[in-house]
């Protein structure tokens, strides 16, 4: 009964199924691995910014350039404080305030943005404490340059002089004359009574929309694999039922082609009177020809 599986039509169906199922399983497994990688990045990034699990502070030069592996690490650097800026509309524990950002000029001749702390309310230069004078050594969490519109960074324009919307070399280059590091640090302990700004995990390391998209795609590919198997069994069952109906004579009337290519329906000889009625029909069609 299953010899039809060796026909060319079923060979094509079987080859398609044998290729489609491994492909769907492979793609689903790959999407699942992407989700697991994001989970691992999230755990590692969380550990790096957790004070209880942090590694000892290292010199800034050993942690640059900032990437997913070094973002959140403790960095130490020495220099002298220079120009001070404010970063408005920043939230800490659900309250809106502003960062106090001071540039630290290092011995390498470059300036590192240092967030010395956070104050509640509207950004006001008169409220921002002055930076310590002389040579200082600071320790804080290394952070990647910010991009407006991501990681909670607001998109702002037309700010007053002495304020910046994002902490990055691309933004600050138009505000200060210094050669800047494309990174910044936030002090673990707020300076001059200010509140310390918590470190944040780098972009694309959290349970964001992309992570859940990977998880959703995983489910979709496995569903596709199951659907291919389901359709193969359904076609197989339909073919078997068709063969059984043919063997039992339960199929509907068949159409036999005439000599001119058109089809005329004839009942089977097993139907009572079927053969006689067909013969009578052919005889009536032939009578006009005999009369002529």
UniProtKB/TrEMBL annotation:
Q: Where in the cell is it found?
A: Cell membrane; Membrane
Residue spans making up a coiled coil are none
State where it is primarily located. Answer: membrane
Domain of life from the UniProt record = Bacteria
Q: What are the alphabetically sorted keywords of the record?
A: Cell membrane, Membrane, Transmembrane, Transmembrane helix
Q: Where is the signal peptide?
A: none
Span-the-membrane segments of this chain are: 12-32, 215-235
Membrane topology, as annotated: Multi-pass membrane protein
The annotated regions of Basic and acidic residues compositional bias extend over: 277-292
Q: Where is this region: Disordered?
A: 251-292
Q: Tell me its family.
A: Belongs to the SURF1 family.
Name assigned to this protein: SURF1-like protein
């Amino acid at each position: 009964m299953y010899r039809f599986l060796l026909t060319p039509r079923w060979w094509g169906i079987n080859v398609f199924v044998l290729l489609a199922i491994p492909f769907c399983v492979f793609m689903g497994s790959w999407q699942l691995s992407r989700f697991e990688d994001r989970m691992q990045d999230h755990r590692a990034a969380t550990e790096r910014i957790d004070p209880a699990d942090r590694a000892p502070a290292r010199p800034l030069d050993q942690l640059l350039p900032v990437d997913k592996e070094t973002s959140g690490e403790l960095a130490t650097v020495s220099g002298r404080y220079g120009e001070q800026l404010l970063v408005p509309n920043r939230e800490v524990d659900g309250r809106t305030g502003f960062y106090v950002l001071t540039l630290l000029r290092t011995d390498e001749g470059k300036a590192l943005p240092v967030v010395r702390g956070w104050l509640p309310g509207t950004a006001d230069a008169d409220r921002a404490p002055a930076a310590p004078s002389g040579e200082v050594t600071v320790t804080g969490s290394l952070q990647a340059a910010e991009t407006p519109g991501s990681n909670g960074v607001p998109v702002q324009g037309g700010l007053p002089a002495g304020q910046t919307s994002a902490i990055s070399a691309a933004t600050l280059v138009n505000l200060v004359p210094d050669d800047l590091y494309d990174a910044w640090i936030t002090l673990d302990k707020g300076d001059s009574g200010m509140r310390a700004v918590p470190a944040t995990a780098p972009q694309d390391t959290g349970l964001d929309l992309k992570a859940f998209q990977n998880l959703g795609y995983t489910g979709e590919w496995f569903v596709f694999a199951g659907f291919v198997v389901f359709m193969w069994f359904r076609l197989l069952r339909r073919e078997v039922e068709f063969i059984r109906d043919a063997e039992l004579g339960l199929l509907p009337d068949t159409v036999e082609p005439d000599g001119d290519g058109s089809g005329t329906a004839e009942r089977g000889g097993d139907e009572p009177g079927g053969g006689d009625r067909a013969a009578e029909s052919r005889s009536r069609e032939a009578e006009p020809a005999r009369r002529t």
